[in-house]
Fold this sequence. Notes:
Oligomer: single chain
Number of strands: 6
Structural class: alpha+beta
Largest sheet: 2 strands, antiparallel
Shape: elongated
Amino acid sequence: MKKLFGVLLLVMVVIVIILVFKGSLFSQSNDLKTNQFPVKNSVEKGTESLIKIPGLKVENGILVFNTLEDFTKGYEILNSMDLEKSLEWEKELKFESQRNIFAAVVNAEYNIFLRPYENLNEEQLKKLTPPKVHSDKFKEALSTGVIKLIISEDKSDTTYNYSIF
């Protein structure tokens, strides 16, 4: 019973995370829906980019802003991008954000822990043994420190989040 409760709790947490990502983090702002892009990229001169972020460069896989004002403007622009645009922008810069790594982990975990069980009823779910193996994306993000495991005090439930929280 404890294991079933733990699995159901994990399933609920993953669903909430997915809803949060689909509902707010990856929604486009009205400003970006005008599609006034592409513009010249400030990082690599002469290449086309989805968006211009002044005062930005990538050093050792980290975004570096020249000033606090550049950071603030860049942060607003990056946060307003939908997943598709941010992935394309990151690919162009040869950069991978924690947000998109985390989204890939959530998606991979969803495919293992939830998708196979979406159409099962409660009785069918009770008879199943939940998977015990995480996705390769999860393992990679955990080993590189992007995510961390969160274990409940009574050790009956395990979930994950960004390692910075």
